[in-house]
């Protein structure tokens, strides 16, 4: 056993040292693996970043009410009388001002993307100070809070970074209405930073919404209160709403871009087939180039297994180098890259690409699969070619 291991180690060392003789073909294999890994990680980082942006907005202790059957709050509605009924629900926390409930509006307005100079949908949310206080991590990074009853609004930091004309002090026209940006806020990088916030009653008046809202948020006494709240909703015939934890709602919304991960795997798999063809050619050439060396080692007592292991090690080494190059490229060009895309409510969500150790592992695994397959068959050939044939092919 020790002899077999020492022979394999010697062949591996010899194969790695001979790589400069096949420099360009080896680099081609490294490059192909790197491209596959980089493309895969780019798509996975996009999907992961969007999902994290959505999920981090939700709280387990906040109940989110929308009309039963609505996929998003844009499709929901709640009248003032229904909001009053929700406020009487058991399990909702109360303070000196009464039930901690925030009825909110969700209106779509236009913004101009900095990257394309094209119009895109942005959410204008109507709420009050109680609703603002329910957003975990909320901080004003510039300016001040809007004054109730005025045409003032505050803008998420994500909107400022990705869209034109929303800087502090700017006046913005939506239809016939002109708004003034009096503040810029952050909520820790989650989906709320993709929104514009203004006083709910002003938006009701300007958009002819009467006394209606679209969604309701409520701070619960505890996460376990959700069951009692839903029982109350079922027992009250005037309510056509369902409640879920805010964290659950946003987790489901975050899955709307999961197709990007699937698309990334499909594209990378197709590219991997091309990379595999090139890698097989590289490894077969490597075996042919070292035919004399393989024959000599076999003649002096080295086993066919050592020739197999040496060729496999060469292929896996090139694949690992390719995966590291691809991972580094993905990290440099994509990690933290900020962009925006259409979310579940047909409005833009600003998010950042997020590369995690889990994703790097997936990228490296893809490269190792390419390395294993591309090395196995040439290694099998190296192990089984008769010594005399190997000498003849080396002449």
From TrEMBL:
<keyword id="KW-1003">Cell membrane</keyword>
<dbReference type="InterPro" id="IPR025857">
    <property type="entry name" value="MacB_PCD"/>
</dbReference>
<feature type="transmembrane region" description="Helical">
    <location>
        <begin position="23"/>
        <end position="46"/>
    </location>
</feature>
<dbReference type="InterPro" id="IPR003838">
    <property type="entry name" value="ABC3_permease_C"/>
</dbReference>
<feature type="transmembrane region" description="Helical">
    <location>
        <begin position="257"/>
        <end position="280"/>
    </location>
</feature>
<protein>
    <submittedName>
        <fullName>Peptide ABC transporter permease</fullName>
    </submittedName>
</protein>
<dbReference type="GO" id="GO:0005886">
    <property type="term" value="C:plasma membrane"/>
</dbReference>
<keyword id="KW-0472">Membrane</keyword>
<keyword id="KW-1133">Transmembrane helix</keyword>
<dbReference type="Pfam" id="PF12704">
    <property type="entry name" value="MacB_PCD"/>
</dbReference>
<feature type="transmembrane region" description="Helical">
    <location>
        <begin position="363"/>
        <end position="383"/>
    </location>
</feature>
<feature type="domain" description="MacB-like periplasmic core">
    <location>
        <begin position="27"/>
        <end position="234"/>
    </location>
</feature>
<keyword id="KW-0812">Transmembrane</keyword>
<dbReference type="Pfam" id="PF02687">
    <property type="entry name" value="FtsX"/>
</dbReference>
<feature type="transmembrane region" description="Helical">
    <location>
        <begin position="300"/>
        <end position="321"/>
    </location>
</feature>
<dbReference type="GO" id="GO:0022857">
    <property type="term" value="F:transmembrane transporter activity"/>
</dbReference>
<dbReference type="InterPro" id="IPR050250">
    <property type="entry name" value="Macrolide_Exporter_MacB"/>
</dbReference>
<feature type="domain" description="ABC3 transporter permease C-terminal">
    <location>
        <begin position="266"/>
        <end position="386"/>
    </location>
</feature>
<feature type="transmembrane region" description="Helical">
    <location>
        <begin position="328"/>
        <end position="351"/>
    </location>
</feature>
